[in-house]
Amino acid sequence: MSAPRIVIVTGGAQNIGAAIVARFQAAGDTVICADLNEPDAVGVTFMETDVAREASVRDLMTRVEFDFGHLDVLVNNAGICIEEPIADTREEDWDRVMAVNVKSTFLTTKHALPLMRAEGAQYPAIVNISSIEGLGANPLHSVYAASKAAVAAFSHNTALEYGPYGIRCNAVAPGWINTPFNEQLLAQYPDRAAVDSAIEALHPVGRLGSPEDVANTVFWLASADAAFVTGQEVVVDGGRLAKLPLPAL
Question: Does the annotation count 144 as an active-site position?
Fold first, then answer.
């Protein structure tokens, strides 16, 4: 039996990140939550990290090297979103979203690569969380969409450059996932049943996604079962993008 893997999950304290942490924990892996907030999960190694600052990311990887000697899996999940028309978006808001969503993915990858090439690393893999909003559009999400398209593109380049060293890199593009954030958004509508029905109708599978749906895909991509999969963006959206809209007839 192989030894437990060393896994970093950025933004692992809540929502999809917490589900990803739990999935790797369930497999017996050693999971490090790199976040500004401490997770509620028991048994997770918390390393407070501002993933948008290189000094903080460098400190994270130095600690991982000292404690474990190598890194097997990096999951870049940390992300933020703003809702503004393009004409009203402030430069500082654009910069903040790009820093947390894109720059962080670059910084963690850059500083993780030596640890993933170190002795003891097992099937090293990077999984970045992109979004279907990098493939299609939702109103007022131009900055978020641009950042997630950039994450997908960066994943392709990482796979290309570091495949020869045995390091794979893929992206996972979630669709509408039923997180507490989305629950709060939907709760403002008085006819909640009608809203749920309308949203579910967008998905051929007939339901919203769960954080566990994303976590299971991330786990598979990071496993040896996906050893021949790299440079891909895997869409996890219940078929939403595959469904062409039709008018009500």
Answer: yes
